[in-house]
Design brief:
Elements lengths: L1 H4 L5 H8 L3 H5 L8 H14 L5 H10 L6 H10 L15 H7 L1
Length: 102
């Protein structure tokens, strides 16, 4: 609608009359990528390596050819409720060591 009227009037005036900010005219929703493809790729990585954090996952996605940033990966991981809590197992000292210490 705005595209048809803008030939006769400036965009600023048209948006003002319609009560819309000018950014809505310049917004390109088709350019925004769908997150479903990223979610599927992230889930594959998480299944293989559940201890990966957002930095490693971002690096893996970039190696696979995805154009994605860390903030987007963090948001998607939060959406998946992923926390990389599976870390290295802690080794405790042996009982013999404790007995000699006293």
């Amino acid at each position: 609608m705005i595209a048809a009227i803008r030939k006769n009037y400036p965009i600023k005036c048209v948006c003002q009359v319609l009560g819309l900010p000018r950014s809505t005219y310049y917004d390109n929703p088709a350019a925004k990528a769908d997150d479903e493809g990223f979610l599927a790729a992230i889930e594959k990585i998480i299944m293989k390596r559940p201890y990966y954090g957002y930095r490693r996952i971002t690096h893996q996605l970039k190696r696979k050819g995805y154009k994605v940033g860390e903030t987007r990966v963090r948001r998607l991981l939060k959406q998946l409720e992923h926390s990389c809590s599976a870390g290295k197992a802690l080794r405790t000292a042996s009982i013999a060591y404790h007995a000699t210490r006293t």
